[in-house]
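Title: Prediction job returns without error message
Component: structure pipeline
Severity: low
Priority: P3
Assignee: unassigned

Description:
Job completed but the reporter wants confirmation the result is attached to the right record. Sequence as submitted:
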Amino acid sequence: MGEPMSRAVEESNRAMLRARDAMDRSYAEPLDLPALARVAHVSEAHFIRTFRATFGETPHRYLQRRRVERAMYLLTQTPQDVTEICFAVGFSSLGTFSRTFRRIVGESPTEYRRRRGPTDVPACFTKAWMRPSSFG
């Protein structure tokens, strides 16, 4: 009896992974909920609920965190200024970028860059070590 239900859960998880993969690939592009829900083949409301249940955060927060993770890398590994990085990772407003960055990382992009500076540690280690936790 459990077979059809587990198949439904498996298919739902696959759909959420497809949407999350689309977010990971296209984090810098404007992504809207209707488009992501279409990727997952569900309604917007169902998409938000199911994504949160599957990954522990809303699609919007996941996307913001991915953008900030990329910005963290660019701040320490490139000479781009904060405004260039803001737009490069998909934010349309420097104010929103700075507020979101501070909420996730705990300091402004400029403070983060000043404190971190360039690293000589392998990128894979740096990425795992510097990944911010989800905010709630």
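Comment from assignee: result matches the submitted record. The chain has a mean pLDDT of 87.
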